[in-house]
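Quarterly update, task 2.4: iron/sulfur cluster-bound model.
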Amino acid sequence: MSGRPDADRDTSAAAPESGAGTQTWRVRVDATACMGTGICAGVAPGRFRVRDGVSHPTDEFVPPTQQVVDAAESCPLEAISVTHRDTGARIAPEE
Ligand code: SF4
């Protein structure tokens, strides 16, 4: 044991934009619910891409970022889910 609290964590996929924390979030779009409005792509540019009428996250795993929360909260069909990668705990949209 090294004694470092984060010594056993895989932070390779986590590149915090602000340097705050080492969490990684998982972003998913329910293709059966998505209507391809493109709102998410407008709210979070570069985070979602609408293709063939369905939105897709550009990256499934992202560092914590308010943009994906805003996108999930803005989706009129609640097709976007943001969860903690490791715990699966729901981050957005709020229940
Ligand atoms: S805002 Fe929701 S319904 Fe609209 S494209 Fe994005 S995921 Fe699909």
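Highlight for this quarter: Confidence is low (pLDDT under 50) at residues 1-20.
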